[in-house]
Design brief:
CATH superfamily: Mannose-Binding Protein A, subunit A
Number of helices: 3
Number of strands: 8
Radius of gyration: 18 Å
Number of domains: 1
CATH topology: Mannose-Binding Protein A, Chain A
Helix content: 10-25%
CATH architecture: Roll
Length: 164
């Protein structure tokens, strides 16, 4: 093998892993993000705090591709009960009614994909979830009900060390 081929292979080996997220065991990978789908249910605030404790945040959805990935994963997890589950994500209109923002950044949502009839302010719904009956599109609910949740981090390198 000549020098140019060796240099190409060495460069490829160094930069290829940087193109993909390196997620912790149990987290799903999509582009440069890692996602953890909870096994238990929590209020939106509890879910937010749990994700922070895991060096992550509630999921922020910024594109059709990302939402389609999450929808696919959720249908895979809930093959037989999708219409009975909902998952908290990071969106909220707690600050100003009907002005939806990402809690993590405070930015107004630039991407939305609401389920039919949503948001409907059901039960004073100020927190966003992916609604199984609505095809895992976005919906609002009362922040104090207990739902599953999705945590998101950029990669294992940015996730910090978990002790315990």
């Amino acid at each position: 093998m000549d020098f140019r081929n060796c240099l190409f292979l060495a460069t490829f080996a160094v930069f290829l892993p940087a193109c993909f997220a390196s997620c912790r065991n149990g987290w799903a990978t999509f582009e440069e993000n890692c996602y953890l789908f909870s096994h238990g249910r929590s209020t939106w605030g509890e879910a937010y705090a749990t994700c922070l404790a895991l060096h992550s945040d509630l999921a922020v959805i910024t594109s059709d591709d990302e939402q389609n990935f999450l929808i696919s994963e959720l249908y895979h997890i809930h093959r037989h009960d999708a219409s009975h589950v909902r998952y908290w994500i990071d969106g909220t209109d707690l600050e100003v009614e009907n002005v939806w923002k990402w809690a993590k950044t405070g930015q107004t949502l630039s991407y939305v994909n609401w389920a039919s009839g949503e948001p409907n302010n059901a039960e004073g719904g100020n927190c966003m979830n992916l609604y199984g009956t609505g095809g895992f599109k976005m919906a609002d609910d009362d922040c104090d009900i207990k739902l599953f949740y999705i945590c998101q981090s950029t990669s294992v390198e940015n996730a910090g060390t978990i002790i315990g």
